[in-house]
Amino acid sequence: MKKMRTVDAVGQVLCHDITQIIRGVSKGPVFRKGHIIQPEDIPVLLSVGKEQIYIWENNEHMLHENDAAIILRDICQGRHIAAGEPKEGKIELTADCDGLFLVDTQGLYRVNALGQMMIATRHGGFAVRKGDRLAGTRIIPLVIEKEKMEAAKQAAGSQPLMQVVPFRNIRYGVVTTGSEVFHGRIKDTFTDVIVSKMAEFGAVMAAHDILDDDPAAITRAINGMLEQHLDMVLCTGGMSVDPDDQTPLAIKNTGARIVSYGAPVLPGAMFLLSYMTDGRPVVGLPGCVMYARRTIFDLVLPSLIAGVPITADRLASLGEGGYCLNCPVCTFPNCGFGK
């Protein structure tokens, strides 16, 4: 790449796109990379502020921005992610199915820390829909050292930095507990909330039991649903620390591995997550899920539907951003909750 005066550049090959911006009207290239400059092009180049331009010179140690952008794309692009064509060193990535968007946060940091290139993504761990924009990449200079791009590959590691895990077709059961509901003293309004949230992901409730605060009966109900080959069991009621709250004990007695009883999220501190030995989740939902618009359940549900295991470390990391502000107009997930 060599810089030269525009008026002297007739016959030379452009090594980058030349963009024209007309406020409120358009933004786009007037000339593309590889264009051979003609005499009539000089006034156009001057009109977009190009007194000097870069023309192409071969250099075996350097890569053009678009060629380097393709390498950066390959570093990022995992399963179920589509990519656009490189333009001015930029490539945009989109989801090619509904699913859970995952990002290798540490790998992303290592690549961005190299400088001269950038990857900007939406927040991982949240649901995306087919066609959603996921990330944009850009090579900062017009040309970049091949060695720098090799360093980016090493920094990213052996696996792509991003992927979308498709949502599964889920059949689930709900175990509603509490003497007040069991004896008909109050109406069960919790289950409708669960059905509504699960329906957003195409999940279907295939079993529902309403039980007294009897841990043995609750355990039997959970195991019965699992024996029906349901993919997940959700338990409501009895998740606090009152003497009558027996649901955590009942879940433990199924033999499930308790990942966490409690989460650093408000609303949702009394959340319980466990997995059976075959990986199926058994979840205890705190009462706030029934009345608060967004809770811990909304943060973990995409992972549960996608079948991506949730670790104790993942739950612990939700503390920063885990405080819902209960805004008058809820814009979740386009807000800071869970981020």
UniProtKB/TrEMBL annotation:
Q: Which keywords does this Swiss-Prot/TrEMBL entry list?
A: Magnesium, Metal-binding, Molybdenum, Molybdenum cofactor biosynthesis, Transferase
Q: Which E.C. number(s) belong to this protein?
A: 2.10.1.1
UniProt pathway annotation: Cofactor biosynthesis; molybdopterin biosynthesis
Q: Which cofactor does it need?
A: Mg(2+)
CDD domains in the record: MoeA_like
Q: State the SMART domains in the record.
A: MoCF_biosynth
Q: Name one Pfam family in it.
A: MoCF_biosynth
Which leading EC class covers this enzyme?
Answer: transferase
Q: Write out the catalysed reaction.
A: adenylyl-molybdopterin + molybdate = Mo-molybdopterin + AMP + H(+)
- The UniProt record lists the keyword Metal-binding: yes
Task: Please report the stretch or stretches of sequence annotated as the MoaB/Mog domain.
Answer: 173-306
Q: Which residues form a coiled coil?
A: none
Please give the function described in this protein's UniProt entry.
Catalyzes the insertion of molybdate into adenylated molybdopterin with the concomitant release of AMP.
Q: Which family does it belong to?
A: Belongs to the MoeA family.
- Put simply, this protein is called Molybdopterin molybdenumtransferase
